[in-house]
Amino acid sequence: MNAEAKVASADLTIMAGANPARAARPLPRDLPGILCGRYQIERLLGVGGMGAVYRARDLLREQFGEPQPWVALKTLSEDFAEYPDASALLYSEFALTARLSHRNLVRFYSFEVDPACQRAFITMELLKGNTLDHVLHQYPSGLPWSETQRLSVSLLEALRYAHDQGVLHGDLKPSNLMLGDDDIRLFDFGLGQAREGFLKGLPRLARSRFAAWTPRYAAPELLDGATLNAAADVYAVACMIYELCSGQHPFRRQSAKQAQAMELPLTAPADLPRALWPALRAALEFDPAKRSSLPDLLRAFRAQRPSRSLLTRLLRLPA
Ligand SMILES: Nc1ncnc2c1ncn2[C@@H]1O[C@H](COP(=O)(O)OP(=O)(O)O)[C@@H](O)[C@H]1O
Ligand SMILES: [Mg+2]
What we know:
By secondary structure, this protein is an alpha+beta fold. Helices cover about 35% and strands about 15% of the residues. The protein has 2 domains: about 5-125, Phosphorylase Kinase, domain 1, CATH 3.30.200; about 130-315, Transferase(Phosphotransferase) domain 1 (Transferase(Phosphotransferase), domain 1, Orthogonal Bundle), CATH 1.10.510.10. The chain has helices spanning about 5-10, 60-65, 80, 85-100, 130-140, 145-165, 220-225, 230-245, 255-260, 275-285, 295-305, 310-315; strands spanning about 35, 40-45, 50-60, 70-75, 110-115, 120-125, 130, 165-170, 175-180, 185, 195. The protein has a 6-stranded antiparallel sheet. The longest helix is centred in the middle third of the chain and has 20 residues, at about 145-165. The radius of gyration is 20 Å and the shape is globular. Bound molecules: adenosine-5'-diphosphate (ADP) and magnesium ion. Magnesium ion (MG) binds near residues 48, 176 and 188.
C-alpha cells in the first residue's frame, strides 16, 4: 500500500472478515450450555494457546432488565483443563487483571466455578472489534502513521499502568489486542505475573509446563529461561509497534534467538519519523540491559506528532 492509499484509509474501516475462530462450532462435550445457572453460552468468540472465550448472556442481569446482558466468558481449553492446577492458573489471570482499571485494558467481572461440572471460568466485558492480527491482515503495509502513533501511545500507557500496579503481561502480541471503534484494549494476562515485591500473597505458580512464550514476540532472555521481567514486555510491545507501523515483523517473523543467529539486519520502517527510530530500535535490543525502558519509549512516542506531510495533506497546508 502506498502513502496515498494509507492516508485514504485513515479511518481504518475494518472489513467484516471471516475470522475462522468465530465460525459456528459445537460446544465442547464437557461444557454445559448454562454455567452456574446464570451464564448462557451463545457462541465461541476465539481460541488462544490456553483458553476458549465464548459470548454468553448473563441471565440474572437480564432478568433484572439489563439491556446489555452479554459478557465474554473464558475457560481453559480441554487440554489444559485436565491439569490439577489449571483452575489456579485461570484464577491467577483473574487476580492480576481484576485489580487493574484502565480504559485500554479489558475489565474483568468475576471468577467462578460451575458446581456441577467443576469447570472454572472468568467473566469479563465483551469486547467489540477485531484483534490486531486480523486488522494487520487488512493493512499489509501497516496503519497510517497518525493511527500508529495514537494506538502505540494507548498501548504503552496501558502497559505502563499495569507495570506500575505490579503486573507484567508476558504475552503481548497482536492476537491479544482488540481494536474497537476508536481505541485498543489489551487482554489475556494468562501468562502474566506479579513483579518482584508486588502483590505479595498471590501464589506464584510454577509455569514451566504452561509458559509457552510466543517465540516471535518473546525477548531472548525468556527463551533462555529467564523469569518474566518488565524489559521482556518492552521487547514484545516494540515488535508490535514495528508491525503497526510497517505491517512487517522486525525480524521477518523469526524468534529473537533465530534473528540473532542469522544476524538479521534491523531496518527502520519507512513511515516511522526518523527521530523515533533510536527509541524503537533500542526497545528491540536483544540485550535486556541495553533495552530502552517503557517510560522512555512512551515519552518518545508521545512527543512525536503526525509527520508534517500527513498534517499538510489533512489540514491542506502549503507543503
Ligand atoms: N473480552 C473479550 N471479548 C471478545 N473477544 C475476546 C475477549 N477475550 C478474548 N477474546 C477472543 O478470544 C481469543 C482468545 O482469548 P485469549 O484470552 O487470548 O485466550 P488465550 O489465553 O488462550 O490466548 C482472543 O484472541 C479473542 O479473539
Ligand atoms: Mg491469547
